[in-house]
Design a protein that fits this description.
about 80 residues; alpha/beta; 3-stranded parallel sheet; 3 helices; 3 strands; globular
Amino acid sequence: PIRIQKNIPLIACIDDSPQICMLMEKIITANGMKFVGIQNSLSILPILIEHKPDFIFLDLIMPVTNGYEVCSQIRRVSIFANVPI
């Protein structure tokens, strides 16, 4: 039988470090949750909108754009108004 996974939280990790994303993925998936890692600052919003995570880990110090700017952009998207960052 095919099991449909319902109500399993999806956690997003926005960090320019591949090591941090891999570590977060191991921790999150080992605890039964789904994971999406985003390292490219230019694709953050499209990926978030596509996957609609329940929680977002956000690095503050990144090249191109910093975490505060990214947080501000995320908050402008209504579907993320109540998503913890």
